[in-house]
Specification:
single chain, alpha/beta, Peroxisomal Thiolase, Chain A, domain 1, 2 domains, 10 helices, about 20% strand, globular, ACP_syn_III_N
Length: about 325
């Protein structure tokens, strides 16, 4: 396989931070609210009603264009996007994003699976396309845009899980070169868990049918227990598999970047790899759970702050949904900032 590098990352967070007080005025007392899975962040961002996933991606791309030149869009051979809540359920975000950027990529993919591990999944797909084609440059886009539209619905904003998600977009630029090489990627699907998370209108109505009921991912205490156990296991498991492939110990990784679902997962994951907390960046309190965008947004925050040393090994790891997918990637960091 030819060498492929993650040469840069960028991100965009919409609007002003939304305080937790927004939700507490509506919240109803319930046992679920005490669960560690739903302990809320200090703040989060919400996408505006008329702001789209493509808008966020275009605004994130502006930082890459500034660093790599106005001709960057014309260089893109591949655009791969993952959007938590598609703006158009018929057409994915990729073609519209290409039009906005002035790009004419040979390969445009919109992937819906991958969940919170979608950034790693898209890196893997881009690398495979580069290995089997003449493509040299790829843009991978993770947009989380359901916090504002879904979790502020009048009935949903009362639920324990409502304050946890935030909106944002993170993007990565990949090139077929060895400037910031991807050392290894491991993606794993667990189909036996695929039915354990579902989207419900809390009634008989299908989400596309007219009628009453507000759509949201539904949780029960038994489901939460299962998801927590799987997440605790899957992220370190796939991360340590990548470490073994590249010949390093988990404790020797310079920086671990994961999805950011809650504080307890974050603590358990760096403990499992025997890493101090300072080597596992945490954007949860500033951004909430950004789902697929959590890894690239956190990477961008750390990179812009100068905390990622060029030449260091950065390990990305995440799991998706109720545990049906997990992925990890190791990079020899060398991105611009």
């Amino acid at each position: 396989m030819p060498q492929v590098s993650l040469v840069d990352v960028a991100s965009y967070l919409p609007g002003e931070p939304v305080p937790t007080d927004y939700f507490t005025q509506y919240s109803r007392s319930e046992r679920m609210a005490k669960n560690v899975m739903f302990r809320s962040p200090t703040g989060r961002h919400h996408i505006a009603r008329d702001e789209t996933a493509v808008d966020m991606a275009e605004r994130a791309f502006a930082a890459l264009r500034e660093r790599h030149g106005d001709g960057l869009a014309a260089e893109l051979d591949i655009i791969i996007t993952h959007t938590q809540l598609p703006d158009n359920p018929v057409l994915g975000a990729g073609p519209e994003l290409a039009r906005r950027l002035g790009a004419r990529p040979a390969h445009v993919l919109d992937v819906h699976n991958g969940g919170c591990a979608a950034f790693v999944h898209m890196m893997s797909l881009a690398r495979m396309i580069m290995a089997t084609s003449a493509a040299k440059t790829a843009l991978v886009v993770a947009a989380q845009n359901c916090a504002g539209p879904v979790f502020t619905q009048p009935e949903i904003r009362k639920l324990a899980q409502a304050p946890v998600p935030g909106d944002g977009c993170g993007i990565g630029l990949l090139r077929k070169d060895d400037s910031a090489p991807i050392l290894d990627i491991d993606c794993r699907t667990y189909p036996e868990f695929a039915g354990d998370m579902d989207f419900s209108t809390n009634g008989p109505r299908k989400y596309w049918e007219p009628g009453e009921g507000q759509g949201c991912v539904s949780f029960t205490e038994s489901k939460i227990t299962k998801v927590f156990a799987r997440g605790n296991r899957l992220v370190p498991e796939v991360a340590l598999a990548v470490c073994e492939h590249i010949g390093v110990k988990g404790r020797d990784i310079d920086t671990l970047v994961t999805n950011q679902p809650n504080r307890l997962f974050l603590r358990n994951w760096h403990d499992a790899l025997e890493l101090p907390a300072e080597r596992h960046p945490d954007t949860f309190d500033q951004c909430g759970n950004l789902f697929a965008a959590g890894i690239p947004v956190t990477l961008d925050v750390e990179n812009r702050a100068g905390r990622l040393r060029n030449g260091s090994v950065v390990l990305l790891s995440a799991f998706a949904h109720a545990g049906d997918f997990a992925g990890a990637a190791a990079i020899r960091w060398g991105a611009a900032r």
